[in-house]
Amino acid sequence: MENSRDKVAQLAEIAKAIEADNVTPHLKATATQLVFGTGNPDTDLMFVGEAPGKNEDLQGEPFVGAAGKFLNEMLASIGLERKDIYITNIVKYRPPDNRDPTPEEISEFVPYLKRQIAVIRPKLVIFLGRHSMSVFLPELRISQAHGKPVRKGGQVFLPLFHPAAALYNGGMRDTLMADFGLIPAILKKITSDTK
């Protein structure tokens, strides 16, 4: 079993590769910095969002704005903190004016995200929003798929609505909290299936 120091080093290599390979130079030119990902590389839970926003771009960490505060609240509701999980986005540079990342920008970053997943080897990859879900599960619609685990290629994925959606829609907040509450049971089932 590799230790977390190896994983930290491997993740740092992937971050360096993004810089060295000059991924999305037009995004890099307008961003403050690369927002790669943070958290526990030995976690069972990896969260994947879409792209950094203004606060993330300034602080260099995913989900630190209002949506991040709600994410922290949801984590607390299942007895977890940020240090217990790993969190990243598909696109690692902030798109100008917080626009949605384009399909081309997403596809440029996907190989690096797949490498992150391969290093961390989470039991469950949780998509925050339809953009991240559609990379791995393009056949699904988030309105139907949210809260339902999907096994594909040996990996279990859980699509959820984006926490930002709940900031503008109270009903969505309840849905997200309910979906989030399923995570411990899903994880338990995955763990018992792999024994």
List its salient traits.
single chain; 195 residues; alpha/beta; Uracil-DNA Glycosylase, subunit E; six-stranded mixed beta sheet; 10 helices; 51% helix
Note down, in words, how this protein is organized.
A hairpin with a 2-residue loop joins strand 5 and strand 6. The protein is of the alpha/beta class and 195 residues long. The chain has one domain: Uracil-DNA glycosylase-like domain (Uracil-DNA Glycosylase, subunit E, 3-Layer(aba) Sandwich). The model has no long low-confidence stretch (mean pLDDT 94). It is built from ten helices and six strands; from the N terminus they run ααββααβαβααββααα.
Topology (SSEs and partners):
Layout: H1 4-20, H2 25-30, E1 38-39, E2 45-49, H3 54-59, H4 66-77, E3 86-89, H5 103-120, E4 124-128, H6 130-136, H7 142-145, E5 150-152, E6 155-160, H8 163-168, H9 170-180, H10 183-194
Parallel strand pairs: 2-3, 2-4, 4-6
Antiparallel strand pairs: 1-3, 5-6
